[in-house]
Amino acid sequence: GRKVIENNLKQSADGGAYKIDFADLEAKAESGAKMLFLCAPHNPVGRVWNAEELERILDICVKNNILVVSDEIHADIIFSGNRHICPATISKKAAGNMITLMSPSKTFNITGLSISSAVISDKKLREAFSTQTERLHISQTNVFGITAFEAAYTHGERWLTALLQYLENNRDHVLEFIARELPQLTAIKPESTFLMWINFEKLGMKQDKLNEFIIKKARLGLNDGAAFGTAGNGFMRLNFACPRETLDEGLSRLKNAVDNL
């Protein structure tokens, strides 16, 4: 089996933006790590990595001969003032030891069609990947998924433009509501994704009690922050890709629950 080594992000002192801990990343790369799972854009904190950050990541990986698996499933959901850069376009050398994973499932809400793509420029790596996916019987798709994949990327631009505006408005609405009505919480402004990373630590609850509070008192289904690693304790993830009416109902339930503590 494989051993998972966490490279936790560093959050600014004011509880705002997250950055990569490059000293920790380099130390762990030099300790014998073989593969880096790069989430670009990042889920759950919503960071869009810039060119300088990606260059530093890839330099470390090339230096230590580390395979990069770049998860770019949220690459189409980028908010104003940000730009997604595909890591494989940064370094030709790094791209030769990289697997780029993409799918229209998040962007176009077609997860149920089970369709995605793996882009691998190196022939030997591509053949090895294909051999393993065939052995595990996960290489097959279906005609409906393929058709939806092609249709989404061929004809979906106008729909996506409208979606991004709606999501950005929802994002800002959540940020404003929490700042105004729930000062006990801290919401991280995402540059991408439709997910809000929220800090509940000031409520003083252990993670299991926080989960129970969200489910039983707030009557909400948020994602447990601990599921994203040890650094997620005290956090929950909220999905704001929904009608505004639904979002407001959820925010109201959360406020009522916190006010009644």
TrEMBL record:
Residues 5-254 form the Aminotransferase class I/classII large domain. It is an enzyme of class 4 (lyase). SUPFAM superfamilies: PLP-dependent transferases (SSF53383). It comes from the Bacteria. The keyword Lyase applies. GO terms for molecular function: cysteine-S-conjugate beta-lyase activity; pyridoxal phosphate binding. Its cofactor is pyridoxal 5'-phosphate. The keyword Lyase applies. NCBIfam families: C_S_lyase_PatB. Belongs to the class-II pyridoxal-phosphate-dependent aminotransferase family. MalY/PatB cystathionine beta-lyase subfamily. This is cysteine-S-conjugate beta-lyase. It comes from Candidatus Wallbacteria bacterium GWC2_49_35.
